[in-house]
Specification:
single chain, alpha+beta, nine-stranded parallel beta sheet, eight-stranded antiparallel beta sheet, 13 helices, 30% strand, binds alpha-D-glucopyranose
Length: 768
């Protein structure tokens, strides 16, 4: 039976289409972003999207034959009977088409009873086996060459086609492989290329949801969700980059961080006390390893009580942190959500008194178990809880803690999953765990961000394990409990690339691997591969082999140092990319496909990536490798180490001794370069900088500010334009809002070095 389209109404930029059964509502936000709501005119409260994103946009609605056609400058949406829609770009190329056939679940040689049993035991079954009331799905046409990216931190390879995933924040420390359906984060944002034409789909629903990207059938992909509204955004753009820009316009961009957060960070679960932390810091200096941060894992707390520290292990905490800071090392402490159930502990008592914890339907505080033992869960969906949690950070910021690491906020629970019906608030209204689970980490890190911002007057440094779409506005992320396994070093690249394409520009993995035992070769290859990872942290689990840079002696230590120093030389490049990313939403570490999506060779590359537009990194992620192939995109490329030139669109063979990271620069690039061998970001004052030319000419815009607070948003920053063309060289101060400017700028070209000095009177750089 056809569900006929009856009539429609236009209110402002919203078109409501009435059917014999149900309705479809389309809202034009911009020419490239259209929201679709099915069978309701009001969606759920959005955690991902803040503020009004609708811009005054021209559009038209025409009725033609059997269709209603909504057209913007960039999209054409055909609205049909049966609530089916088809989306095309302005050139008429298909982007997203509703599938007309029936789904055909995979044949697994099981009858219904067996399938149920398998599902209960957690084995593979079909996604909608648990379909109940409230279940909804959308099935879309899949083209023969369609590829998918995005989806946050999901395991496996860069192109998600052929796999299925669940959006349900999951803490599972077992080695995460490509068959894992869910991990710590839920980012229901899909980036697609259909016949080379880019588009995005963002499903704004916090309930447990599922993507099948051509696994069940090669002719369609689908999204399903167990409850809530079918509420999604069709996102256009001429390129994948533009789609990412649009998606991050909608859900927010990674803000410019404090500069020191881009430095090297050392961590381990199991560091015992202040003395051991002091020794780690001393070794960093002794071995000339630049380092900006040491993390304190749960061991620093007083019996795992959040917002406390163990006075025996850290007797003079404030003084200790001040001493470390004087050496250029900042401390980041972990804060988990689980509050120890412990009458007399003031955080617990305050939470109980004020009804700040999640409740059972019978109105008791819900108890599960995490590190402190029996624990209760702050109900971050309440505004008062957010405020309280934020304020509690004063205890840590007062003693000089510089950043906060949020963990276990899926939320994790050691004695079984938290039942769906436990009461967690949704925007101050009682709701369920089933609805709020996926935004628990989001709301926690938002509270943390708010607290740090108020107390420190700095750009907050928060790291979270669990996240939802949009969390990038508040927190950086790491990929959770990987292992010291080659498979996980390999997975780092697609994971960080996809996080980057999902808006999470500031992300990293545990370098060296968290679980299992590292080897010297693995640690060496890992630091090489990760050296441009936006978040650069070595972290390992208690009980595993130590993997600090010196743990394996030489030559691991020297190689490690060589790459840390490379990172610090190139920090201004990374910082420039962050400044750019705040405007464009583009990641720092970029999937090769973002370089040229029309080159099919770039669509499935799992073992190389770009850093910005200028650097191509092709790490070694396999044990015992002595040579590797590198695919160079169109253009010309220079070997970073030797200067050798290569034509693009070919594979080259590179010999890769253990201390060697294949690194290429796009020909005719300038790169900023800090000459000093820094021990930490703050150790060397920024009075000088060098720009190195790779090729014959180049142009570069460099950003500078105080690297700390929000003054840049009031114009306190400098922009330098550097131009090198043959023998002509020019340095211009485009914007001068931050004092001081560089006194000396060196240009390094094939012809040697030229030094420019800042002339205060003219406000210009003059050749010395
Ligand atoms: C979790 C975290 C890990 C941390 C450990 C102890 O497993 O993912 O990073 O070290 O808890 O706090």
């Amino acid at each position: 039976m056809t569900n006929k389209r009856l009539d429609y109404q236009i209110n402002d930029q919203t078109v409501v289409v009435r059917y014999q059964q149900g309705l479809l509502q389309l809202t034009v936000l911009t020419a490239e972003i259209v929201r679709v709501l099915k069978n309701t005119t009001v969606g759920d409260y959005s955690y991902a999207i803040e503020g009004n994103k609708q811009q005054a946009t021209d559009f038209s609605v025409d009725e033609q034959d059997q269709q209603l056609i909504l057209t913007t400058a960039a999209l054409r949406i055909e609205i049909n009977d049966d609530q089916l829609i088809d989306v095309f770009n302005d050139a008429g190329q298909p982007l997203v088409l509703d599938y007309r056939g029936q789904r055909t679940p995979l044949d697994r040689d099981m009858d219904e009873a067996q399938a149920k049993l398998a599902s209960a035991e957690g084995h593979e079954t079909d996604a909608n086996a648990n379909a109940g009331v409230g279940y909804q799905e959308v099935v879309k046409d899949l083209a023969a060459d369609e590829v998918f990216y995005g989806l946050g931190d999901k395991s496996g390879f860069i192109n998600k086609r052929g796999y299925e995933y669940d959006n349900w924040n999951t803490d599972d420390p077992a080695p995460q492989m490509e068959n894992f359906k869910s991990l710590y984060k839920s980012v229901p944002f899909l980036l697609g290329l259909k016949d080379g034409v880019p588009y995005g789909l963002f499903f704004d629903n916090t309930y447990r949801s599922h993507f099948d990207l051509g696994k069940e059938n090669q002719h369609y992909y689908f999204y399903s969700v167990v409850n809530g509204c079918l509420d999604y955004y069709i996102i256009g753009g001429k390129t994948l980059r533009e789609v990412i820009k649009n998606y991050t316009y909608l859900t927010g961009r990674t803000p410019l961080p404090q500069k020191w957060t881009l430095g090297y960070q050392q961590s381990r679960w199991g560091y015992k006390n202040a003395q051991q932390i002091g020794e780690i810091a001393a070794k960093m200096r002794q071995y000339q390893l630049p380092c900006d941060v040491i993390h304190l894992d749960i061991d620093y707390m007083d019996d795992f009580r959040v917002f406390t520290w163990d006075q025996n292990k850290y007797p003079q905490m404030k003084q200790f942190l001040a001493d470390l800071k004087a050496q250029g090392i900042k401390i980041v402490t972990i804060i988990d959500p689980g509050v120890k159930q412990d009458p007399g502990y003031d955080i617990y008592d305050a939470g109980v008194r004020n009804n700040f914890f999640a409740k059972t339907p019978e109105d008791y505080n819900y108890v599960n178990r995490v590190w402190p033992g029996d624990s209760v869960y702050p109900d971050f969906g309440k505004t008062r809880v957010q405020k309280w949690w934020a304020e509690n950070h004063q205890r840590l910021t007062d003693i000089g803690v510089s950043g906060i690491w949020n963990d276990m906020n899926e939320p994790a629970s050691f004695i079984g999953e938290i039942p769906d019906e436990i009461i967690f608030s949704d925007h101050d209204q009682p709701a369920t765990h089933g609805k709020m689970h996926n935004v628990y980490g989001h709301n926690m890190s938002k509270a943390t961000y708010t607290g740090l911002k108020d107390q420190q007057q700095r750009r907050p440094f928060v790291i979270t394990r669990a996240a939802f779409a949009g969390t990038q506005k508040y927190s950086t992320v790491w990929t959770g409990d990987n292992h010291s396994l080659w498979a996980h070093l390999q997975m780092m690249i697609p994971q960080l690339c996809n996080l980057g394409m999902s808006g999470f520009a500031f992300a990293g993995t545990d370098i060296g691997g968290f679980g299992s035992d590292a080897t010297p070769e693995l640690l060496t290859r890992w630091i090489e591969a990760a050296i441009f990872s936006p978040l650069l942290r070595n972290h390992s689990a208690m009980g595993t082999r130590h993997q600090e840079p010196w743990s394996f002696g030489e030559p691991t230590l020297s190689t490690y140092r060589k790459y840390l120093q490379l990172r610090y030389h190139l920090l201004p490049y990374l910082y420039d990319l962050f400044a750019e990313g705040e405007q464009t939403g583009l990641p720092i570490l970029r999937a090769m496909v973002l370089d040229d999506e029309q080159d099919p060779r770039l669509r499935n590359l799992n073992d190389q990536f770009m850093v910005g537009d200028r650097l191509l990194v092709a790490p070694i992620v396999t044990v015992g490798q002595t040579k590797r192939l590198v695919y160079l995109p169109a253009g010309e490329w220079l070997d970073f180490w030797t200067g050798a030139t290569y034509q693009g669109q070919q594979d080259i063979v590179v010999t890769v001794p253990l201390d060697y990271l294949p690194l290429f620069v796009r020909k005719n690039s300038l790169l900023p370069w800090h000459a000093e061998n820094r021990t930490s970001v703050q150790a060397a004052p920024e009075t000088k900088i060098t720009f190195r030319l790779f090729g014959d000419h180049g142009s570069y815009q460099h950003y500078q500010d105080n690297g700390l607070d929000f003054a840049y948003q009031q114009g306190e920053y400098n922009l330098y334009q550097v131009e090198v063309d043959g023998r002509q060289q020019r340095i211009e101060l485009l914007q001068h809002g931050y004092q001081p400017v560089y006194q000396e700028i060196t240009l390094e070209t094939a012809n040697g070095q030229q030094v420019f000095n800042f002339d205060t009177e003219s406000g210009q750089y003059v050749l010395r």
